[in-house]
Design a protein that fits this description.
Layout: E1 3-5, H1 17-21, E2 28-30, H2 31-35, H3 38-52, H4 58-65, E3 73-75, H5 83-88, H6 105-127, H7 133-157, H8 179-196, H9 214-228, E4 232-234, E5 247-249, H10 258-274, H11 283-291, E6 304-307, H12 317-321, E7 325-329, E8 335-338, E9 342-344, H13 348-351, H14 358-362, E10 363-364, E11 367-368, E12 374-375, E13 383-384, E14 408-411, H15 412-425, H16 429-443, H17 448-456, H18 461-476, H19 482-489, H20 492-508, E15 523-528, E16 531-535, E17 549-551, H21 570-574, H22 591-596
Antiparallel strand pairs: 1-2, 3-9, 4-5, 6-14, 7-8, 10-13, 11-12, 15-16, 15-17
Helix pairs in contact: 3-6, 3-7, 6-7, 7-8, 8-9, 9-10, 10-15, 15-16, 15-18, 16-17, 16-18
């Protein structure tokens, strides 16, 4: 008989067989006792969520770099010897000290999966989910959480071991499996889970975004379907785990073609939208709520569908990505020298229509100094304005390495845009327009007719696809989904090369940026309350009146007075990727994991020869 520790299950740590099998504890209950009791079973699910907050898992390693770099987001420091830059710049090695850890995200994700496997097996055997709706909800929740973790494993490492049963001494060492095997299991699991789950706001549990609900599971199904049917670097057939470099291609599996997956994915998205159990919120309010943990409420009138379930004192989202502070102080009493590790690429702000409210909320070209004043760092360095220390009023930062912000995994805008993309691919342009329109109208608050005219003018399938490619950039910049959109579209290197070319045009005020600034590269700025107003980015031809401060040669400056590289210099621009981002779109399996796998796990994609 299996024994488990309530709330802290023994999981797969990938360190040693002896340690893994040593699960004895004086405070254990047998599985029949645990999984026939709702509260005890719920505690085992909370132990899965506990893995997310582990120091080197989602909290401190995975979320910091998994979405970098893309054509709209990049790591804000270029230093080829910096191992953090190497992760973002597609040049990391299997011995990277940031991720080559026995308690890193790869090991901790499998720990959470082992806990999920034990829970699923226990509920099926003892929880009577066929007749007990509460236990059925918990089964749906854990199936969905396991699917999310596997989705995150695949988007980081590509092909990984498929473990859908609890581990025994005979199965502890396992080689990599084709991701297609994993995709099909995830889709089947979500098919089972979705009927068990209530919509957001329908129950006490689903009124919280740190618990799973039906719309999140439906959206996750669509995300898995889009990834499974899209492009990615894949070893040749039968060559997974042999060191094969592979090619950028679609799956050959007949069950994972768009013609098979898209109709069901669209049906789930249509059901989610028709449920009216979530909606778009005011864009600025949405992000202020995230900083204040007011994004925990799910249901009608709310946009977030699921957040990383960090505890109130865990997580490093603003700590990593907020508008940079160089010693400013905030409501929590802490002096902050953090944030700004990554940001929008310098051209992103200029891509938005000036009337798009997302522009100035998303792309910020100022930071806080030690005098609690805003200053401009130069055209080369931008920050994600969705994340701001000054917005943490209800949940102020009090110092330390954690900020308590729970990052949004999926929100309603993505439900709409995935529906638009799939409907368009299915040939229903009118439906695609209907899903795109509310996202565009929210973005053009006060200018809704412009949004309607724009959507109505989209003339065909290709034009709609291009509009969705752009809209997803505008909507989700700073949310670390773009890299994976570009991968599945087969556009990663193409779009990153375009970003490089456009940054050089911005520096020289040529090409698409020839009319950005008629004042010779000068920028003027002033404070308007707590907001920095910048003049000179949008092609103004006349110097502004009033008390404006001038920043000369803002665009064209490449070296400072001492000859040091600054501004948009060539190496910085070219450093958006250091190696081919297509071949190295996936992270390597790290040395610690390969060593502890007893030789069962090997690297593909060319990492074996580095």
């Amino acid at each position: 008989m299996k024994y488990i520790l309530v709330a802290v299950l023994s999981g797969l740590s990938l360190v040693s067989c002896e340690k893994f099998l040593d699960s004895s504890s004086p405070s254990t209950f047998d599985a029949a006792t645990v999984y026939s009791n709702y509260s005890l079973t719920e505690n085992t699910i909370f132990s899965i969520s506990q893995s997310f907050g582990e120091t080197n898992n989602y909290r401190g390693r995975y979320l910091s770099w998994i979405g970098l770099n893309s054509d709209i987001e990049w790591y804000n420091t270029f230093k080829p010897t910096d191992e953090k830059y190497q992760i973002a710049g597609y040049s990391q090695l299997p011995n990277n000290s940031q991720l080559n850890l026995n308690n890193g995200p790869f090991a901790k994700m499998y720990e959470a999966i082992e806990r999920a496997n034990l829970c699923i097996e226990g509920i099926r055997e003892y929880g009577n989910p066929e007749e007990n709706a509460d236990m059925a909800y918990l089964l749906g929740e854990v199936l969905t959480l396991r699917a999310m973790i596997y989705y995150d494993l695949v988007r980081a490492w590509g092909d990984v071991p498929a473990r859908f049963e609890s581990t025994t001494s005979e199965t502890i060492y396992r080689s990599k499996d084709s991701r297609d095997v994993i995709f099909k299991q995830l889709l089947a699991d979500l098919d089972e889970a979705i009927p068990y789950l209530p919509y957001p706001g329908a129950t006490s549990a689903t009124s919280r975004t740190d618990r799973v609900n039906k719309m999140f599971a439906q959206g996750l199904y669509a995300r898995v379907a889009l990834m499974a049917s899209g492009y990615a670097q894949r070893p040749d057939e039968g060559m997974v785990g042999t060191g094969d470099i592979g090619t950028n291609r679609l799956s050959d599996d007949p069950e994972l073609q768009k013609s098979v997956l898209y109709p069901k994915a669209l049906k789930y998205l249509e059901e989610a939208i028709a449920s009216n159990s979530a909606s778009l919120e005011d864009f600025e309010t949405l992000w202020k709520n995230q900083s204040n943990q007011d994004n925990l409420v799910a249901g009608p009138g709310h946009e977030p569908l699921f957040v990383i379930p960090f505890s109130d004192g865990r997580g490093r989202w603003n700590y990593t990505f907020a508008v940079r502070s160089e010693g400013a102080s905030y409501a929590g009493g802490a002096t902050v020298t953090r944030g700004g590790d990554a940001g929008p690429v310098p051209t992103m702000w200029f891509k938005y229509d000036p009337r798009d409210v997302r522009r100035d909320i998303t792309c910020v070209n100022w930071r806080w100094n030690a005098n609690d004043e805003q200053e401009m760092p130069g055209i080369q360095r931008w920050y994600f304005g969705k994340y701001r220390w000054e917005w943490m009023t209800k949940n102020p930062y009090k110092g330390g390495n954690d900020d308590g912000v729970k990052p949004v995994v999926l929100r309603y805008a993505d439900i709409l845009l995935m529906a638009a993309e799939i409907a368009n691919e299915q040939g229903d342009l009118d439906a695609a327009k209907g899903y795109l329109l509310p996202v565009r109208e929210r973005a053009f608050k006060g200018n809704e007719q412009m949004a309607e005219d724009y959507v109505n003018a989209i003339g065909g399938k290709e034009a709609m696809f291009n509009a969705i490619v752009d809209e997803r950039a505008f909507e989700f910049c700073g949310e670390m989904t773009r890299k994976f959109d570009l991968i599945r579209w087969g556009m990663l290197k193409e779009k990153m090369d375009q970003a490089k070319a456009e940054m050089k045009q911005l520096r020289g005020l040529t090409g698409i940026f020839a009319d950005v600034n008629h004042l010779g590269g000068d920028v003027y700025y002033q404070l308007d309350g707590n907001r920095l107003v910048i003049y000179g980015f949008s092609g103004e031809a006349v110097k502004p009146a009033g008390a404006w401060e001038k920043k000369a040669e803002y665009f064209t400056k490449v070296v400072d007075s001492k000859g040091a590289d600054t501004g948009l210099y060539d190496d910085l621009i070219e450093g958006i990727y250091d190696r081919d981002p297509v071949q190295y779109m996936f992270w390597p399996i790290y040395n610690d994991t390969m060593t502890n796998s007893q030789g069962m796990i090997k690297n593909d994609y060319g990492y074996e020869s580095i």
